[in-house]
Design a protein that fits this description.
CATH class: Alpha Beta
Structural class: alpha+beta
Number of strands: 4
Radius of gyration: 16 Å
Distance between the termini: 42 Å
Number of domains: 1
CATH topology: Nucleotidyltransferase, domain 5
Largest sheet: 2 strands, antiparallel
Number of helices: 5
Shape: globular
CATH architecture: 2-Layer Sandwich
Low-confidence stretches: none
CATH superfamily: Ribonuclease H-like superfamily/Ribonuclease H
Helix content: 40-55%
Length: 139
C-alpha cells in the first residue's frame, strides 16, 4: 500500500541448455556481485565460463576486475555495449518471469513476491526447454 515491493536478483543463464542460476540479494554492489560470481564459479566448475555482462556500475568496479584477473583460468568476461538490453539473453528470462509470474498481480508483502519468483525460477530450472525458444537468437 503506497510502497513498491521489489527484490534484487542476480541471474545467469547458460545459453545452450537454459541452465538458470539466481540469487536474491539485499543490495547490488561489487561485494555482493563477487559473492554471486563465486557461486557461479562453483556451479559450473570445472568448465571454463564465458560470462557476458551488461554495464551495471558494480560490474565495472576495480575489485571485480581484479577478481576476474585472478580467475582468468576459469572465467572470461565480456561486456555488452552500453544501452543494449536487446543483446542480453537474460533480459528474455526476466521478461518471461514477469509474464508468467508477476504480471498484473498484486503482492501484499515482499515474502509473497519472493515466493512467486522462486516458484517461477524453479519452473525455469526444472523445464529448461520451456525457455529455449527465448534464447534461440543468442545460440
Amino acid at each position: 500500500m503506497g510502497q513498491r515491493n521489489t527484490l534484487k536478483i542476480f541471474g545467469t543463464i547458460e545459453l545452450y541448455c537454459a541452465r538458470f542460476l539466481y540469487h536474491f540479494q539485499d543490495v547490488f554492489n561489487a561485494q555482493t556481485y563477487l559473492e554471486y560470481l563465486e557461486k557461479v564459479l562453483r556451479s559450473y566448475s570445472p568448465r571454463k565460463i564465458y560470462l557476458i555482462q551488461d554495464n551495471a556500475s558494480y560490474h565495472k568496479d576495480r575489485t571485480v576486475w581484479d577478481w576476474f584477473s585472478n580467475h582468468r583460468k576459469h572465467i572470461e568476461v565480456f561486456n555488452l555495449p552500453a544501452y543494449s538490453p536487446d543483446l542480453n539473453a537474460l533480459e528474455r528470462i526476466w521478461r518471461h518471469t514477469r509474464h508468467c509470474g508477476t504480471h498484473n498481480r498484486y503482492f501484499k508483502t515482499q515474502l509473497e513476491l519472493r515466493s512467486t519468483l522462486t516458484s517461477t525460477f524453479r519452473s525455469i530450472q526444472h523445464n529448461p526447454k520451456q525457455v529455449m525458444g527465448y534464447l534461440h537468437p543468442y545460440q
